[in-house]
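This is your field. Pick holes in the following sequence-structure pair:
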Amino acid sequence: MSKFRKKAAEPLAIYDDITVGLKEIYKKSLLPLEKEYKYHEIQSPMMEDPDFDGKPLVMLIGQYSTGKTTFIRYLLERDFPGMRIGPEPTTDNFHIIDFAEEEGKIPGNVLSVDSKKPFRHLQQFGGTFLSRFEASQTNAEVLKSVTLLDTPGILAGEKQLVNRGYDFAGVLKWFAERADRIILLFDAHKLDISDEFKSAIQAIRKNEDKIRIVLNKADMMNHQQLMRVYGAMMWSLARILQNPEVSRIYVGSFWNQPLIYEGNRELFEMEQDDLFDDLEALPRFAMVRRLNDLIKRARSARIHSLIVSYLKSQLPMIGKDAKKKDLIKHLDVVFETVQNQYGVPAADFPDLDVMKEKLRKQDFTKFPNYDKALIAKVDKMLSEDIPRIMSLLPGEEQEKNRMGLGTIKGGVFEKVAMPYGKGIDAGIGENIWIVTRDKSKYDDIFNNLEQQNGKITGRIARDELVKSKLSNNVLGKIWRLADHDQDGLLDNEEFALAMHLIKVKCEGSQLPEELPAHLIPPTQRFFKFMKIKLERCSPFSLVTEEELIRSK
């Protein structure tokens, strides 16, 4: 028997909770590598429990007077402590807006020492920044599901030459790495991008998957002006973001004032719905974002360790300082060598100029050598631990939806529809069944068809429906929606409904997968109400539209 036995493989950990699992694999697999290779000093501070536990963070960035604070007020549908709105640069602080039963404000120095909040590492930016950092707390329903961050208005013209006294781009980068959404706000009348705004965008550019671009105050322009501004903005952003793909730009006017030009009302409403639908789903996908950010961090830390260990290996016995200067000067060659030696994608390397600046402050002699075991731990985390945690995501998503925690509620997200709509939505909120408007015409057709006990068969209905020239697939869907009681026949109301759905489709609207409550035939609506009440054994209880749709 061999004297040396192979060390038994460490058993795979079992996690029941995604948040707990992420914390454990970070502390056991990734944190040792980060500490060993000074990742926290050179790249990014250590992650702590609040980084995994917190609510989704929405960050707003823009030049002064683009409507950032007004946008937040529009979301909350209420004022909040410390809110200042005006044409001049009114917001000069990094301003967290969070939920609390009692309204109040918390200074930055207090926030930075609170271990229950994810802001402790902001102390690295100094006292000047902390004096420009604060949090407001208010009892807004929206803030139960999300935290908002209002940033200082970015300066333009001569104002941008004034030194803020702290690393503004560095603070933006720190928050951007932890944000779930970054909203870049532009004023439709001020598209000039200052040097400070350009450096701010470049600081957050690596988080392009989180960025949403909003062209605000667009109601002050007519169609032609808006088209020109939209094109100019896309051209400017393509140069700064250095992205070959065209970024989606949400156009609108995000405040509670009457529109100046109403010609684009429908466009603004659709754009607002798309943007707010994206924001509304943030709580549902917050854990996916944290998982994604941890994977990105692991890849970044792995590459960092390869660079640092290579720099250490190149130091001679004599003349270390001169060699250090030479390595930093030719850092691009170092990157290329590491890339070829370890097969690392070039896009995963850190920013060259920023890395040079950080390395100048480091003592290369204290860098560790290449540690295969530490890197193997990170590789195992990416290949085994992360996939096992990902398998828990569907269950957690279902649990959030069951508890009603999957979306943002309150404020502007409480959508109240007016009794008006187009296409399939026509008739929502009206007391009269929308099909009644043309029912007399449909009844004339129905009464001339062959009937059995007041109903027509699928064969008879088909001969009439195909006159619409719609495809068999579409007509089959219309039949399924119109035969609401699923008896294989159509009565006069169901036939009228089928003709209405044909009209909706021919006018260019999409058909729904399920028949909306406002289109259910009136007689069947009554029987459904009674069925639900009897199932509850409570004839006096209220029945919602959702129950009406689900009930068969």
The longest helix spans residues 282-313. The beta strands are 57-62, 94-99, 104-107, 133-138, 147-150, 181-187, 211-216, 249-251, 456-457, 489-490. The longest strand covers residues 181-187. The mean pLDDT is 84.
